[in-house]
Amino acid sequence: MFYIVVMVFLIIWGMCVKFFKINIIILLIFWSIDSLAQKKEMVEKSTLEIDNTIYRLIRNDSIVEARIFLDTIFNHKKSESDDEFLLSYNYNYGLIFMTSGKPNAAANYIFKAKEISKRIPGNSYESKIKVVVLRLFRETNRYKELDSLYQKYIDYNKKSKNGIIFFHHLDYIISEMNRSNFKQVISISRKVLSDLDDYDYTKMSKESIHVINDVVRNELKIYFAMALMEKGIDYEKSYRLLNETERDSLFFVQRERDEYLRLIQQYKARYFYEYDKNMDSVSYYQALSNKYQETYIKKLKRRASNADIFIYEIAKNKKDIEQLSIINEKNIQIQKSYFQVSFLTGFLLLLAIIFSVYVYRSNNHKHRINQELKEKNAELLTVDEERNQFFSIMSHELRTPIYTIQGLVEIIENTKNQKQRKEFLSTLKFSNNHLSGLVNNALEYSKFRLGNVRLNKDAFSLDEMLTNICNSFSYQLRKSNTKLHINIAEGVETNVLDDRLKLSQIFINLISNAIKFTTDGNIWIELVQIASFENMIRLRFTVRDDGIGIKKELISDVFDGFKGIHHIDKHKGGSGLGLYIVKRFIEDLYKSSIVVESEEGKGTSFSFEIEMERNLKNTKVPIVNDEDYANVLDGYNMLVVDDNTINLMITKKILESAGAICTTVDNGFDAVLLTQKNDYDVVFMDIHMPEQDGFETTQKIREFNKDVIIMALTAVDLERVITKVHQSGMDGIVAKPYKRSDLFQKILSFSLKKD
Questions:
Q1: Contact criterion met (CB below 8 Å) for 61 and 19
Q2: Is the pLDDT of residue 242 over 70?
Q3: Which residues carry this modification: 4-aspartylphosphate (predicted)?
Q4: Which pLDDT score, from 0 to 100, does residue 568 have?
């Protein structure tokens, strides 16, 4: 009874302590508890309770309470303690000291636990002790012992197929990083990340899968990226890995998260300094790195009051010594200056006058700089507030379709009724389109903020484009009982050369906005040709509805991103970016303007005029509807090159569903060989591949084959790679994600050009 009261008291006390960052030892404890749960038939219930309690206390940074708890249990069981309890006692005490940053003290307990473990055959602590021993050697810089044990432990865990092998790899990679063996870090990290992809997780719990596949993977990625940049190779891959780890920063253990984020920003700054040569980005990411460093130091200071005060004291003393050294140097300089001035008393009056003038001008200059800094700071605060609002809104908006997609997948798996499955699939398709639209808007918003947007023109038919867009809204229209009408005036030239994707995004956002605020009503899309020139036409587009309308005082805010959301939020939600993107496209890319007219309770109308290039070659634009693709690619022989197995499988299925013969390959070297041996109509080329990327592969193919159509099939931002795509010899780009009809139409369009 006493034990239970003490345990409950300490757990509650620990929960009240403010959470700090959790280092990799906490992950090991988490793994230990999970392993114990899987093998609890080999461990007494009391031992498992001790491990769980110690884990919770250390997780809450309640180090003192954890030690008190262990000592209390030890005194209570001293007379009846057995090897299993002593093993748990010494192992947990070692973890407590490791977490407190005292590896030497931890070593005494861990090695004692190791000796006890030898007396208990088949105990669950054996493999975990190996992990802690390897970490002890790493943290105490005993690299010879670490190197000698590393391969032995790897071989041992390979035989038992134990996931703890990845902890061994991680400790060894960190040790190699500390020794600046960056080539070894790159080699081992690449192999371990590949092993993580192939590892069989079926017999593991969700918690263990999270620890290995998320947390350990994320830490491996950052050391891989750092080593690549230290070696000065593959900067783009390093930058991509840094972005991935920052996106998944919640996977970092809490205690180390700010330090890892500091490293990510620091190496991003190096990327822009050494490779991209963008000094603005260098300053931005260096400032972020400093900010995370300040946050990390502040948390260390707060943590110093709970059993680890020596960490802050060491840093503080070191800083005080440095400051004292600076002060002493300044004092020496002042003494020298004073000694010199004593011999120049005759010039004191002149110096005083010069100094007064200097102070006056300096104060004026300082005042001007302070004023500029205040204005700049106000701008930065506004940008920061807008950014925070953006992430807050987008986080909320993205979760809804993601949650819907996850739920529907499970429902569809368990639904046998074909009618219900078809309905669920329609909802799933809508959620997918909605999610894709949100992501596209967010990306375009980001690119506009950086001024990195332009038009990419191609031949297409306006009436076919509008029809396909309207068909994609069939589910929403059916739900809101609303009809969508397309009215194209007589004599309008619909075959044009323009940016189909951006024009589609304009209409998708306008139609989506109209559907949100129209129930049991109508939406009209109207197209009128205003003028015709030698190679240009001027068209007026109108999207109007008979929905709820907009209040007069809110009309001026609907295009202002997050301001417009005050009107939207009252009804059916939204990110507020759709109309902002529409306005930016029309004004910045088409050099025109959009007009909104609305009357509350009667509806809203958006209209704009833009100039488009006429299709003077009169090339017949192929039309492929969403449902009419069964044999549209019949007779085509195609090659798909991508290092991602899932992407290969999806692309192959899509192309074969349209009647094409499709071959897949996962690297650029084999792609060159296959193109030499076979006559392909189209080659789809991924851009980012290891060893030999898509650009280099295309250049090699063009050395012996100038005719085959090569298209980049990639999710990379088009504006960033469009120049490289054409320079390498590719014919065009298909951006992922894509609709099947758009993909097939792109293929047919390029085929017509070749003919």
A1: yes
A2: yes
A3: 686
A4: 44
CB 498 within 8 A of CB 457: yes
Quote the percentage of the chain above a pLDDT of 90. 14
Count of C-beta atoms within a 10 Å radius of residue 484: 22
Tens of pLDDT, residues 683-736 = 999 988 888 999 999 999 999 999 899 998 887 766 667 788 888 899 888 877
DSSP 80: G
Q: Which residue has the tokens 């953006």?
A: 390
List CB contacts of 671: < 8 A, sequence separation 6 or more.
Answer: 639, 641, 665, 683, 685, 697, 701
- 3-state helix, strand, coil split of the chain in percent (to 5) is 65, 10, 25
pTM of structure:
0.43
335 pLDDT higher than 70? no
- pLDDT number for residue 567: 43
319 vs 297: CA distance, rounded Å: 12
Considering only CA atoms, which of 602, 395, 585 is closest in space to residue 509? 585
Check whether the bond before 690 is cis (ω within 30° of 0). no
Q: In 3D, which of 224, 371, 303 has the Cα closest to residue 21?
A: 303
Using CA atoms, how far apart are residues 396 and 573, in angstroms rounded to an integer? 10
Q: Where are the domains of the chain?
A: 141-156+172-277, 454-614, 637-752
Query: pLDDT (tens digit, 9 = 90+) per residue, 409-436?
Result: 767 777 777 777 777 676 666 667 666 6
Matching fold, domains 454-614 and 637-752: no
- Give the Cα separation of 334 and 338 in Å (integer): 6
Sign of CA dihedral 695, 698, 702, 707: negative
Distance (Å, whole) CA 54 – CA 74: 13
Which DSSP category does 619 fall into? Answer: P
For domain 637-752, which CATH number applies: 3.40.50.2300, 3.30.499.10, 3.10.580.10, 3.40.50.300?
3.40.50.2300
Among 16-20, 324-328, 376-380, 638-642, the least confident range: 16-20
CA distance 406 to 413: 11
DSSP letter (8 states) at residue 630: T
Angle formed at CA 242 by CA 237 and CA 247, multiple of 5 degrees: 125
Q: State the residue for tokens 């038939």.
A: 41
Task: Write down the residue that tokens 């304009």 correspond to.
Answer: 506
